[in-house]
Amino acid sequence: MNGYVKSGLLSFIATVAYFHLAAAAPPDPGATNSASSRPSMAQLKAMAEHYEKSGSKAEAAGTYEQIIKADPAAQTVLAPRLVDLYIDTKQLPKAMAWAREVMKTNPDPQAYLAGVYTRIGMTKEARAILAEEIKKANEPRREMLLNWQLADASEKAGDIEAARAALADAAKSAESSPDAPAARKRLISFVEKHPPKDDKPAN
Question: Which domains does the chain have, with CATH numbers?
Answer without folding.
Answer: 1-106 (1.25.40), 108-203 (1.25.40)
